Fold this sequence. Notes:
Pfam families: ABC_tran, oligo_HPY. The chain has helices at about 55-60, 85-95, 100-105, 115-120, 130-140, 145-150, 160-170, 190-205, 215-220, 240-245, 250-260, 275-285, and strands spanning about 5-20, 25-40, 45, 70-75, 75-80, 95-100, 175-180, 210-215, 225-230, 235-240, 295, 300-305.
Amino acid sequence: MAKNKDVVMSVQGLTKVFKSGILNPEYTVAAKDISFDIEKGKIISLIGESGSGKTTVGKLILKLINPSEGKIIYNGKDISEIKEKEETKQYYRRVQGIFQDPFATFNPLYRVDRVFDLIFDSFDLDYEDKDQAIREALFDVNLNPDRTLGKFPHQLSGGQLQRLLIARALLMDVDVLIADELISMLDASTRIGVLNLLVESCKKHGMAVIFITHDLNLGYYISDHSLIMYKGRLVERGDTKKVYENATHPYTQMLFEAVPEIGERWDPDEEFLPEQVVQDVKEFYQENQGKGFVEIEEEHSVLFSDK
Ligand SMILES: Nc1ncnc2c1ncn2[C@@H]1O[C@H](COP(=O)(O)OP(=O)(O)OP(=O)(O)O)[C@@H](O)[C@H]1O
């Protein structure tokens, strides 16, 4: 493991089982025994196909759902113990999410400025001059305040709205930002701008980002650490370069083989799990039974068996 890590949040043995149906309940293990540390100023990519459990992990961190097992430690405390209103508010003061569809975050009836008004009303933000602080945050995300403030959401593009949400996170000085499929609705040119901005903001402000994506290329481009998820399990994790250059779990290897060309995006509707992969993973676990998670090199670990 990395030495001298500046850990802001620690995810420990997180499991989430969803129950649906009353008479004949069905159980879905959306996430199982997930552990990782979130470090100040680092970007972690959470990569996996549709249904692998990425969003579930994001929702658990955002306290939108409760874990079935395991815990998330923030400021020395298990966040599931945060129940009191003021403490919950303080948690959301420092831990925020931005989702795929920026339009869903904005009320179409209000001007976009409202997202700033709300945080200034709700949180005790330490700025002498609110308007000046908002303008500076907008400049930080390459938005012209004069062309942004006073507008309704439909008058701005998806990319501009996402920049605005990043500006809001910067104003709040968040510790952890969950960016779930952040740029998938944006066109290629806007995407790079938002990504670069995220990296710069993260490094400049010490914000940690959990970047949830289907896209291996994006993961490589943006992240310090990569976590590969397969069927609710974390199967490979570590320093992004090491994971990408020495992919060891059969599922991760398949992901790399499935990327047709650099620069081309995965199609989430495509079939990613040919029977062969399921079989390969099964055999891999059988051959390595009892090994569990193994650090194969510094800052690079692989799930060799699920039992
Ligand atoms: N509220 C819920 N009730 C029941 N099952 C759920 C619920 N939320 C998620 N699931 C199931 O849990 C599994 C993981 O879902 P999750 O949304 O975390 O995957 P994902 O990797 O984020 O997928 P995508 O990339 O498509 O968003 C899926 O099988 C999903 O159907």
